Structure formats: C-alpha cells, structure tokens
Amino acid sequence: MSVSPEGPGSPGPAPVPARAPALLVMHGSLAEALLRAAARVYGPIDDVIVLSNEGLSRTELEHRIEEAAGHWPAGGLVLTDFWGGSCHTSGIAAAQHCRGVAILTGANLPMLLDYLHNREHLGAVALADRLMQKGRESIRVQHGPPA
Q1: Residue 116 in domain
Q2: pLDDT digit string, tens, across residues 57-107
Q3: What is the mean pLDDT of the segment spanning 39-56?
Q4: 128 in a domain, yes or no?
Q5: 114 vs 132: CA distance, rounded Å
Q6: 110: which residues sit within 8 A by CB, 6+ positions away?
Q7: Total domains in the fold of the chain
Q8: Domain holding 69: CATH number?
C-alpha cells in the first residue's frame, strides 16, 4: 500500500494548473510600454502577447483577440487599459467565443508584476480575482511628506 506524503487516504498534492496565459490589449503603444516596464523590474518575460487597437476597427480588434485567446485550453487573462473603451468591449465580445477567458480592466504595472509572479500556480479565474485586488491596493493617495 502506498501512502502519499500528506498521509493515508489523502488524494495527494493538488495538480498544478498550467501557466495562465495573458494578452494585453490597450490603446496606442501602452501595452508594449507596460510590458517593457515590467521586464525592467521582473526580468525577461515570455508568453505574454501585446495587442494595440491602433489602426484596427472594432471588428478587426475583436477578431485579433479571439485569434490570440481562442486556443487557450484552460482559459487565460485579457488585460485592458480602461472600462468601456474599444479594447475592453472588443475583449468582452471575443471572450464569448473563448472558453475560460477573464477580462480585467484598468491594468497597471503592479497588476502585471503580480500576474508574472503567480501565473505558474494559479488558474485564470483565481488569478483574475487576485489581480483585481492588487490593482485596487496599488492606488493610493499621499498628502504631505511621508510619515
């Protein structure tokens, strides 16, 4: 009889989810600049796709998002710059044709860095919830000199 490290009758360690993929969809060159800034802090980054809406109709942008996210077997994240813009609305439309895709708006550098640190061990849904909280926590107001 084999016993798992967790003890007798234990189902064993939980399976590690596959790396949650991400697509940054933003206005102009913002997605590229954000990824470049993250690389300066994090180091080399692979498997993150950037997409600009520049020069694309809403239909073309939706098609490009669906093309990038449509092959993700366990879903993934589409991070956009702001709610209600063409990147966000095209992401929502494209996600209807893609399984397990979460759209996060208001993407910022702390969110992207947290994504990079946690994409190996959290699934897309848990990661989306975590990043939303991280984005909220990163917005602060300071009045006067630091205490």
Answers
A1: yes
A2: 999 999 999 999 999 988 999 999 999 999 999 999 999 988 899 999 999
A3: 97
A4: yes
A5: 10
A6: 134, 135, 137, 138
A7: 1
A8: 3.40.50.510
Per the structure, the complete domain to which residue 76 belongs is given by 22-136
Would 5 be classed as within a structural domain?
no
Query: What is the residue type of 134?
Result: K
In three-state secondary structure terms, 102 is strand
Sheet with 48-52, side-by-side order of all strands: 48-52, 22-26, 76-80, 101-104
User: 12 in the Ramachandran plot: left (φ > 0), alpha (ψ -120 to 50) or beta?
Assistant: left
Average pLDDT over residues 21-42: 98
Exposure string over 79-118, b if 16+ CB within 10 A, otherwise e:
bbbeeebbbbbbbbbbbeebebbbbbbbbeebbbbbbbee
Q: Is 129 a member of any domain?
A: yes
| pLDDT exceeds 90 at position 30 | yes
Residue for token digits 């697509």?
Answer: 23
CA separation for the pair 91, 82 (Å, rounded): 11
